[in-house]
From TrEMBL:
Homodimer. Keywords: Aminotransferase, Cytoplasm, Glutamine amidotransferase, Repeat, Transferase. One of its GO terms (biological process) is carbohydrate metabolic process. Its EC number is 2.6.1.16. This is Glutamine--fructose-6-phosphate aminotransferase [isomerizing]. The keyword Repeat applies. Catalyzes the first step in hexosamine metabolism, converting fructose-6P into glucosamine-6P using glutamine as a nitrogen source. It comes from Microbacterium paludicola.
Amino acid sequence: EKGGWSSFMAKEISEEPEAVANTILGRVHDGQVVIPELDGLDELFAGISRIVIVGAGTAAYSAFVGKYAIEQWARIPVEVELAHEFRYRDPLVGPDVLVISISQSGETMDTLMAVKEATRLGAKTLSICNTQGATIPRESDAVVYLHAGPEVAVASTKAFVAQITGLYLFALHVARIRGTVTPELQADAIQELADLPDKIRWILENEQERIEQLAHWMADTRSVLFLGRHVGYPIALEGALKLKEISYIHAEGFAAGELKHGPIALVEPGLPVFVVVPSPSGAPVLHAKVVSNIQEIRARGARVIAIAEAGDAAVLPHADEVLRIPLAGPLFEPILAVVPLHIFAMGLANAKGLDVDQPRNLAKSVTVE
Ligand code: BG6
């Protein structure tokens, strides 16, 4: 089933464009996002005062990205919580709260138990899931299926980009109902989403080989940091998680603004640091701040690998390597910025001769608490 690919992970990364495209399919009508599965729930979405998103691992990081879009477009406060933490802390949710669970498999026990607890407390539950008929969607009041296709490699890749896409569609669906976005903004966002598959393809075609080469050179690396800001922050966490999971290298993701409050103490000559750089035109203030973070770590000898917009000239003098991504609006950039990080993690595991699809100690879906 791998086709000509060396691993399921390689195949699934190559399917990231289709995962995004198929998640959007059938959910745009007359220039607006309408998710047919959520038909009949307008009153619920109009009335909720808060959203809590629960998940584990990569799914939880997609939730972090989704929070920015839901708050910006639908103007509903969103909390993201690890499912296993939510379950055991007497959470403050009730009928005015929507609890969204994110799960690729739909079988993760931690997430299932959080959904059951939310239901017990009277909250409405929505499952965003990639696996038809799985347990979590069956236990939820509503479900939005992603259509990323089956994911076999333990480390989640195409499901992650589909999860963010699904959350963005949900945000636009609810924003339409609540009247919190103008038709122009709705149209712009839909265009941005529709353009993502080709932009991901651009990365695969133009950067994949170079990233794999870089990973090969870095096969002896013992520790890697990842920095990001705003929506780039959860992407940094995801980049670090993926590297840990399949290459067994110590990796940590940080919010770039947190650097001076602690992590900068870790920086020593030669330490590789990946930095997700916001768009200079789309987010100039954040861009300037991240470039100054890069200067701070570079001054201490870090080896900076920037993930930056192609054409971002300001970052060039400060980075040792620049992995390029196409231009996209600030909220859409994470769906592009994560692709080089997925490729890098796979490249490094391959360079170390590891089984990228079946990393030690991990299971694709963890059905115990
Ligand atoms: C973990 C997997 O145990 O479960 C991760 O190893 C995954 O890759 C996490 O992100 C959550 O899984 P799911 O199926 O609920 O999205």
